[in-house]
What we know:
Largest sheet: 6 strands, parallel
Number of helices: 13
Strand order of the largest sheet: 3-2-4-1-5-6
Strand content: 5-15%
Number of strands: 6
CATH superfamily of the largest domain: P-loop containing nucleotide triphosphate hydrolases
Amino acid sequence: MKKVILILGQTATGKSDLAVKIAKKINGEIISADSRQVYKGLDIGTGKITQKEMRGIPHHLLDVVNPKRGFSVAEYQKHAISAMAEIIKRGKIPIICGGTGFYIDTVVNGIILPEVPLNQKLRRQLMTKSAAALFVILKKLDSARAKNIDSKNGVRLIRAIEIAKALGKVPRPKIFPQNYKFIKTGLYLPADKLKKRIEKRVKKMFQDGLLNEIKNLKKAGVSNKRLEKLGFEYFNPTYEKVVSQTLKYAKRQMTWFKRDKKIRWFTSPSSAFAWLQKQLAK
RNA sequence: GCGCCGGUCGUAUAGUGGCAAUUACACGACGCUGUAAACGUCGCGACCUUUUGGUCUUCGUUGGUUCGAGUCCAACCCGGCGCA
């Protein structure tokens, strides 16, 4: 079984830095696991690693799509899995690094996610319906999915119906085989320290020209509505707003990660580094 | 000083005689196998309780009317606007 390193954790805990360090040491390449860093031009606001900080280590799944267009987990998964395979073929070690738990899980757990594009016409139709009505439709189309889905979650119901309509009733496997051993490493900071880090980071964002970045995105044709979707940094951001929202987000990240008991948590990146080396030597 | 409006659970609000009291945000817990910084569910005065349950303390302050007051009345305090 090929080993793959996984570095996850809350925002601003130093994941990218640790990833580069370990990559240098063990001849690795990095696969980003961040739902927003996949977009070109979202650099400052997403805290994307700079060319200089990469120190020559190849990074995958950064800047792969135009922000005008949407991106989905399914696409992420496809790209990440093929990147992983290629890196191993080159005799190197993949390091998945990021804070989007859902993206990470689809890669690590080998969930099957066929690509189904958004169907705007269908969506417009479904949007007017209540969750209860949507649930009835889904039950008819795909009773298996209806069994697991949250019957009150409109957004997910619509997506499930969209998928069921596109794929029909073809039975599909839930999980594909994985030949990787994931070494799960988490970085976390106590609340007060995390807060300071976030404040520092946000201050730097504005200094580095967040507002300018937004202006450029607009110039490139990204609509206001789209910007709002891309995150709170991109829609009328103020220092206070971004700090408080980021804090909130960091908390949510943790509730996701908490569920995976196999993650080994560290406060200090250097002890995480040491532990990772030991794991690879095994 | 006169006139008007207003002071409600962290904030913003609803509530004109039966209310521990609406909604939103924030906050907390949880879920998440398909847009994930999204989305959903639950909780949010205190204490007790197996419960559609009980007790206590709350709507600026003090007093009054009433079986019953956030709601009506009086005085006072604070804020906004208008006239002086």
